[in-house]
Automatic annotation (TrEMBL):
Source lineage: Eukaryota, Viridiplantae, Streptophyta, Embryophyta, Tracheophyta
Protein name: Maf-like protein
This protein's UniProt keywords: Hydrolase
Entry keyword annotation includes Ligase: no
Organism: Cannabis sativa (Hemp)
Molecular functions (GO terms): nucleoside triphosphate diphosphatase activity
Gene3D superfamilies: 3.90.950.10
SUPFAM superfamilies per record: ITPase-like (SSF52972)
UniProt entry tagged with the keyword Phosphoprotein: no
HAMAP family: Maf
InterPro entries given in the database record: ITPase-like_fam (IPR029001), Maf-like (IPR003697)
């Protein structure tokens, strides 16, 4: 089946992952105020944000007449990712502090605080994917979780990470693929593409379901 894909994200990692999946696509960002949307859990929040991005992009497409009938089906892929600390293990069960949800840092100071918190600790990442068929209106979504365990991160590495432009543009202030941080990652429980913001297997499944 022939179809077009629009990636509703400015994330370089998501672009790379979707390219690795073998898809060609165009980019159209939502530009919403993410901090105005709040939910009780990270899972609910990432799903709500992906939905809000779809609504914003569809509204823009309608206003410019780009949702007129076309011969090909068009799929809009939106996603969102949240990072939060795992406090401790009790009877081998992870206890999560939802009060420490980490979105994109609002400043270098907040980014530094985020990264220092990962040193010698553990973080969890929850990411949502929503695939919307713009021709039929069908939406299919889901979320996936992964955990990252860190070695101690030296102060000079934290200083370097804080000065990188990308730090303020990614959830939690870190990108797993960054060579500066990668050597301080002890283990990843789950898939690295889920940590990077677009779990491939889930995305592929949702694409087929939306079609």
């Amino acid at each position: 089946m022939s179809f077009q894909i629009i990636l509703g994200s400015a994330s370089m990692a998501r672009r790379r992952l979707l390219t690795e999946m073998g898809y060609e696509f165009t980019i159209l960002t939502a530009d919403i105020d993410e901090r105005s949307i709040r939910k009780e859990t990270p899972e609910e929040l990432v799903v709500a944000l992906a939905e809000a991005k779809v609504d914003a992009i569809i509204s823009r497409l309608k206003s410019t007449g780009q949702l007129e009938e076309v011969s090909q089906e068009r799929l809009l892929i939106t996603a969102d990712t949240m990072c939060f600390l795992l406090h401790r293990l009790i009877d081998f069960e992870v206890v999560v502090s939802y009060g420490q949800i980490r979105e994109k840092p609002s400043s270098k100071e907040e980014a530094r605080s985020f990264i220092k918190g990962y040193s010698g600790s553990q973080a969890a990442v929850v990411g949502s994917v929503l695939v919307t068929n713009l021709k039929t209106g069908k939406r299919r979504g889901g979320w996936e979780r992964a955990e990252v365990y860190f070695h101690d991160i030296p102060e000079d590495i934290i200083d370097s990470l804080v000065e990188e432009a990308v730090t303020l543009n990614v959830a939690g202030g870190l990108t797993l693929e960054n060579p500066l941080i990668l050597r301080f990652v002890d283990a990843v429980v789950g898939t690295s593409d889920a940590v990077m913001g677009l779990p491939k297997a889930l995305t592929e499944k949702l694409i087929h379901e939306a079609l």
